[in-house]
Amino acid sequence: MANITKKVSWSSRADESGATGEGTPLLNGSEQPRHSRQLSEGRSIFQIGRLSTVDLEEEITSDEDSLRGRPKEIPHNEKLLSLKYESLDYDNIENQLFLEEERRMSHMGFRCLEISRWVVCGLIGFLTGLIACFIDIVVEELAGIKYQVVKENIEKFTEVGGLSISLILWAVFNSAFVMVGAIIVAYFEPIAAGSGIPQIKCYLNGVKIPRVVRLKTLLVKVGGVICSVVGGLAVGKEGPMIHSGAVVAAGVSQGRSTSLKRDFKIFEYFRRDTEKRDFVSAGAAAGVSAAFGAPVGGVLFSLEEGASFWNQMLTWRIFFASMISTFTLNFFLSIYHNKPGDLSNPGLINFGRFETESVAYNLYEIPLFIAMGAIGGLLGALFNVLNYWLTIFRIRYVHRPCLQVMEAMLVAAVTATVSFTMIYFSNDCQPLGPEHTEEYPLQLFCADGEYNSMATAFFNTPERSVRSLFHNQPGTYNPLTLGLFTLTYFFLACWTYGLAVSAGVFIPSLLIGAAWGRLFGILLASITTTGSTWAVPGKYALMGAAAQLGGIVRMTLSLTVIMVEATGNISYGLPIMLVLMTSKIVGDYFVEGLYDIHIKLQSVPFLHWEAPATSHWLTAREVMSSPVTCLNRIEKVGTIVDILSNTSTNHNGFPVVVQVAGNDEPAKLCGLILRSQLIVLLKHKVFVELARSRLTHRKLQLKDFRDAYPRFPPIQSIHVSQDERECMMDLMEFMNATPYTVPQETSLPRVFKLFRALGLRHLVVVDDENRVVGLVTRKDLARYHLGKHGLEELQLAQT
Amino acid sequence: MANITKKVSWSSRADESGATGEGTPLLNGSEQPRHSRQLSEGRSIFQIGRLSTVDLEEEITSDEDSLRGRPKEIPHNEKLLSLKYESLDYDNIENQLFLEEERRMSHMGFRCLEISRWVVCGLIGFLTGLIACFIDIVVEELAGIKYQVVKENIEKFTEVGGLSISLILWAVFNSAFVMVGAIIVAYFEPIAAGSGIPQIKCYLNGVKIPRVVRLKTLLVKVGGVICSVVGGLAVGKEGPMIHSGAVVAAGVSQGRSTSLKRDFKIFEYFRRDTEKRDFVSAGAAAGVSAAFGAPVGGVLFSLEEGASFWNQMLTWRIFFASMISTFTLNFFLSIYHNKPGDLSNPGLINFGRFETESVAYNLYEIPLFIAMGAIGGLLGALFNVLNYWLTIFRIRYVHRPCLQVMEAMLVAAVTATVSFTMIYFSNDCQPLGPEHTEEYPLQLFCADGEYNSMATAFFNTPERSVRSLFHNQPGTYNPLTLGLFTLTYFFLACWTYGLAVSAGVFIPSLLIGAAWGRLFGILLASITTTGSTWAVPGKYALMGAAAQLGGIVRMTLSLTVIMVEATGNISYGLPIMLVLMTSKIVGDYFVEGLYDIHIKLQSVPFLHWEAPATSHWLTAREVMSSPVTCLNRIEKVGTIVDILSNTSTNHNGFPVVVQVAGNDEPAKLCGLILRSQLIVLLKHKVFVELARSRLTHRKLQLKDFRDAYPRFPPIQSIHVSQDERECMMDLMEFMNATPYTVPQETSLPRVFKLFRALGLRHLVVVDDENRVVGLVTRKDLARYHLGKHGLEELQLAQT
């Protein structure tokens, strides 16, 4: 019964942990390592992940890509956990240096820190709002020019014939914009592709995604999103705002830019993962707030995706950043729109005001809303499955930048062509009322004073299309138009998500949902006699939008609040909530949410909220990595360099043990030290020459560690001479002397709770004599997940 | 330098911990106990708390009260921590029984549990909504009758003279209602006094407040709040809703009522502190939601006050309960108001709709709002200081129920008299417009077609008064009326809070703030020439209300959201936030928030979010209680009974240690067991007779512990014969085998973080050989707080 599970390779799985690979020195005298997992009787871990030969080849061939620094090495097996991701340290490293600094600091010092945190959050909000404003204005202007030119062209050629020239003009316009957007993403910063929400989720969860919060990423993101929206793709500019806010936060809070090589010598206290994470939460919230005009939704988004420990002051600051962000956006947009002081445009997308009086709902409509939620869940699952296949296809065959750019241009051209065809063949003409809100009404073959209703959906920025679907009078769209639009836009959006362009999936999802929701409302009104009084199509469009978006992204609490804030009407709270719940339940039955799919496809060791429910029979003994590479409190430099240089293990944390002098007893745990700390120590040559018993180094400050943060040099770049290898290093001052520990018998849920609640990176497992027997890291915990057949264990792979 | 702090009495301070008092057996062979605290050099803990002889006498004389079960023994020194409060266990007790049950449970079983959690939350929301609805309707009806009778009486006597008869009628009406309310509170359930928010805060924080979530408390609360509102006191019915929701939650989630002696045999899994706390959070949120029509605000309130570990699914369920609650209230109220389906009354208090168009604000108004925030902070601090003095006076002199009832009646009579006088001498007559919203306009000495404007504020339920201050046309009130009203209502409300009646402070605060805010707006409009266009008094009334409420209760995030949701207008978010921030900062400079003052006056060991900033120089060694009463894994029954019976220590948690057989080495920690568990074991006689080596008991189930939860019998009620005293008890199966531990050198903030994030009750401090050296409990951590002169240490006292 035992030993039915084996790890892929013990030498290759211990990236984050200090578990030894072959040849690394064992902790002398410790217990025998337990390579195998004892499974309790009657249970077995269901194994799916296999690393087939084909997969391995695939990875080898993609090695050249990874060397060029682009994340093309995504394995196309989501039952793997990649070892390449490091974790972030969301637990303070309480070593002597840190404690001394904290103890030196006066009450007033802490108060100043608190004030500077508020200042940073204010700045984050302000800058995020400005960026949102910039994106909005540029998109408005460029899209205005594009649609104006194409409209004039179409109008010219409608009469004389030869509309194919208009089509070509439109397609060329789109492709050109998209080409620029795709080139900067594919060639300069591939991490800027997509909405960035999965990456920020991972970051807040504690996974270090390389280059995700750099200035270059921000620039590419902003440029890319402008190009892809103006290029007419089925995308939104809202998702990327979250990523942009996060980058702004990471930059502002550090008081320096490594890319620009400028250090303003401020906020040095914040140069560690814990503080930076807090600010990034605020930045993400500010991004949501600017995107949807939903400051509370932004706070909840940050909490839902990131925070494990709820801290009142932190949340309050996050809220402040969100408020400032939406206010800044609103203020500058009001100036741009020549209505200074009009604070009614709090976000990039504005759903328009839903008045309670006109669109109240009745109790008997609630089952209808729930049915819409189910439809949304189904369609969302379909969307996700299609996109999943597409992504696997892309990973296999479209991993060269030039191919990616070409695919993006192709999508742009096809989008233009399909839109044009739909408009061309549509004969849904609507009278051009005095209160019409269409920016670019296309007359085409309609009578004078009428416009093509299909064009309001296709020949428009997606934000405007959503608003017109919500608010246009009943009868503005005929059912056929809506049905066709839903169908085509669904496939276009699905194809578009995952292209090498910066773009979000929120707005396309809302648009698809609003279209079929409105269709649902119209059909409902037609089959009921009293329909006209309650089946207002706009209301159903809103519910459809919520259902579709919920079905795709599967966010719950924050999405409800975002939708409520965006509609500005609290009384829709309950139905929106029910719709989102239903769509999540239905969708989850088939497949995970879109972001989770992409996170899984990247093999990120993502920690969920709780350990799988049925994992109580696993204990720390079974999940931990062992044996562990331990260091002595006073260790030879040569040994440390060797351990750090061992590429087959690449450990990041090492328990420090102390041997009682002249005693046979095994060594006791006395601390924990990180690779990054050792690197700084080696760089500054903090060695003790035992022979002459003198210190050859100056006293190291916390500042030295902060200066090196976050880009610690690799061990290869540090030269240690043969003489120096014989020196000793005293780790006493630098190690975390009080790491959290658990006994071997601790159940997995308990280990998980401790690990997740405190944002740990390494958790030492000790026996009842306080000797190190193992180390639990993120990957050891993320490996277990609840599959269809009970508890499954993911494979770890060096992808 | 060492030993400058001494504890009051070592034998009396260890309630929660297992620290030994005199005479309890020490852990054999453990380290020497550290009675004294070694303070690091150059620092000293500032000591303020003194237990003067007067205080001690006070306590002794009040002993007779405490025996009668009423919490009259409040010490009037807020620099004390009471030992009488036990803690709740928000960490699962993972003993073998629990793990076996969890392991037996299938995936489907967990899913069913999850579904039943949702059902419970739905029920909580529904019942809370119903209770709110009941209170609202009864208050409306009774107040309607009262005001109608008094109005007719006044109208009759206005012409013929002899208005003093009307005054007497009014005062008698009020006093009668208040008498009923005060009698049920003072004689039947004193814990139901006040708003209940401090009690719920403490409960969610992990402090066990006796009788706080019982059915009787709920009944008294509901009856009491109706009486005090109808009795015309300066109180609101909103605060008590939070308490009511919490009681509903605690009751429904347990599937039984101990008071009614009914056990429905459902939800047995939820019979432990962790699960119950989660539901109580949902109940409190549902209460806020019903009170203010603010479901998101409710969720944030629960999180702000309670949750330490953010859990996505839990929050989502809390939100569900909140939504159902506001929906239920709204639905039934719409039927009561003969407008079924009109969902525009989501809460007990309805601020009325603020339209963006009519009351937009400008950038230059923001400094004005901030100034209002400062005023609110000042007035709030004044309110709190006055109420603090009053509370101390009450503790000393008004602790008999009959005195309490008389005081309440006096306040009711005075309120009526003052109101009447104000109305009588006011000559602010306003025309009775066609759109007037006053329910009971008093003409009094005004001309026909006019009404007394002072009466709209005083001769009305406070909720209506708030609404008319927000929304009445400019010019409805003259400044003198508002000034006098603010002044009198301020003192009335301050006098009223803390009476032995169920009542909240939210509405009076809003009312005071709205009055001076409107006054502020009117003065502003009069000194600016362009005043009429922007200085809308209603807007300033809103800001004033926010400022005053913030200055009194000092809530931040949740209050902002509650205000925004209650106004139904998101664009006020930023100003409300700034106002609340300012009022909090200004108010905190002088005195704490009202709830915190009352919590402190009760000497509750309340844990804040983080350890005091300047506490890094304290370590677990200094804060822990030691030496610790430990039990052996197989312990003599007699020893256990003796330890449990020791009234001088009254410990609740005991580390379990194991001695390696035939070895001199000291015992190692192997588990932790609670008093409540030992009681159940003793009750079921789970003894092993070593002589005959057989088990004399049936196998104990988790069910036995759940049946005894939460009212475990005292040790005195369990009879153990002399023979049985010689038996042994095997604790192996019942102890938590993997308690969290920290080394002695761990800094206080680190200990605090672990303790708070995981909701612990006992944290074992071990040395580097895993031997028990101390125990950290809530009181050890709550003792340290940041005072004006740096870190202060509170005294522990057996109050």
From TrEMBL, chains A, B:
Residues passing through the membrane, by range: 118-139, 167-188, 218-236, 279-302, 314-336, 366-390, 402-425, 487-507, 519-537, 557-580
Keywords: CBS domain, Chloride, Ion transport, Membrane, Repeat, Transmembrane, Transmembrane helix, Transport
Annotated stretches, region: Disordered: 1-42
Cellular compartments annotated: Membrane
One GO cellular component term noted in the UniProt record for this chain: lysosomal membrane
Compositional bias ranges of the Polar residues kind: 1-12
Domain CBS per the UniProt entry, residue ranges: 735-793
Stored InterPro entries: CBS_dom, CBS_dom_sf, CIC-7, Cl-channel/antiporter, Cl-channel_core, ClC
Name of the protein in question: Chloride channel protein
Organism name: Collichthys lucidus
